[in-house]
Amino acid sequence: MPEAHPFADATLISCYSRADALADGVLIDRSTIGREAGLRLPVAITRAAWEAWIGWTDDDTKRQTTQDECLSPTAPARRLPHGLNGSYVRQ
């Protein structure tokens, strides 16, 4: 005989659904890209994770390296915090 759900008679104090979190902006829906990747279930990411790892800001745009800078013979040295000779290289 199956056991009864342990919270079957409990009083619900609070409920915060996925739909609530999406509406509040706590979650960002990424289900479309998930479906494109072959996932069948809804996909979401937290706002904090989005801002830390995925979101693009004006500061990110300013930090971009142009193709000319990448192809420059001194580009690898400029990426080092102290250049090749140990002195600080301003970027």
Strand order in the sheet with the most strands: 1-2
Structural class: mainly alpha
In terms of DSSP E residues, the strand content is 5-15%
- State the distance separating the first and last CA atoms: 71 Å
Shape: elongated
Q: What is the mean pLDDT? A: 79
Major sheet size, sense and barrel closure: 2 strands, antiparallel
- The total of helices stands at 6
What is the H/E order? Answer: HEHEHHHH
Q: Give the low-pLDDT segments.
A: none
What is the CA-based Rg, rounded? 24 Å
Number of strands: 2
Q: What percent of the residues sit in helical stretches (DSSP H or I)?
A: 40-55%
Describe this structure in words.
The protein has 6 helices and 2 strands. By secondary structure, it is mainly alpha-helical. A two-stranded antiparallel ribbon has the order 1-2. The protein is elongated and about 75 Å long. The mean pLDDT is 79.
From the structure above, extract its key features.
about 90 residues, mainly alpha, two-stranded antiparallel ribbon, 6 helices, about 40% helix, about 5% strand, elongated
Summary, kept brief:
With 91 residues, the chain is mainly α.
List the helices and strands and how they pair.
Layout: H1 18-24, E1 27-29, H2 31-36, E2 44-46, H3 47-54, H4 58-63, H5 67-71, H6 75-79
Antiparallel strand pairs: 1-2
